[in-house]
Write a structure and sequence with these properties.
Blueprint lengths: L2 E5 L2 E3 L5 E8 L7 E7 L6 E8 L2 E4 L8 E6 L4 E6 L8 E8 L11 E2 L3 E5 L2
Parallel strand pairs: 2-11
Antiparallel strand pairs: 1-3, 3-8, 4-5, 4-9, 5-6, 7-8, 9-10, 9-11
């Protein structure tokens, strides 16, 4: 059974950056595609990015394209999301999730982390 734990969230000023981490245990991360999602209060969960392997990633959300990137370090069993040029509308709980093949649909992911809060505010 895979467990995922997100970290790296917090309070950041507009224009700032954060690197979120998604650490896996209980299974080898390299066997899975890992997606990042976010959910703001009162809104549906939104797919942001997914990484299938070290050389293949997909950006799903137009609102974060060019600002957010995804990478993985299979040796550390960790996937990262670098979030730059943050805006107040990026405020949300950010989740990572594991699946066999990248998808923008949350119900196709088998394992989820507990989420990490990102607040963008001055």
């Amino acid at each position: 059974q895979m467990q995922l734990v997100e970290s790296g969230g917090g309070l950041v000023q507009p224009g700032g950056s954060l690197r979120l981490s998604c650490a896996a245990s209980g299974s080898t991360l390299g066997n899975y595609a890992i997606g990042w999602f976010r959910q703001a209060p009162g809104k549906e969960r939104e797919a942001l990015l997914c990484i299938q392997d070290s050389h293949s990633s997909i950006a799903y959300a137009d609102s974060t394209k060019g600002r957010f990137t995804i990478s993985r370090d299979n040796a550390k069993n960790t996937v990262y999301m670098q979030a730059n040029s943050l805006k107040p509308e990026d405020t949300a709980v950010y989740y990572c999730a594991a699946t066999s093949k990248c998808s923008p649909w949350s119900d196709e992911y088998d394992y989820w982390g507990q989420g990490t809060q990102v607040t963008v505010s001055s």
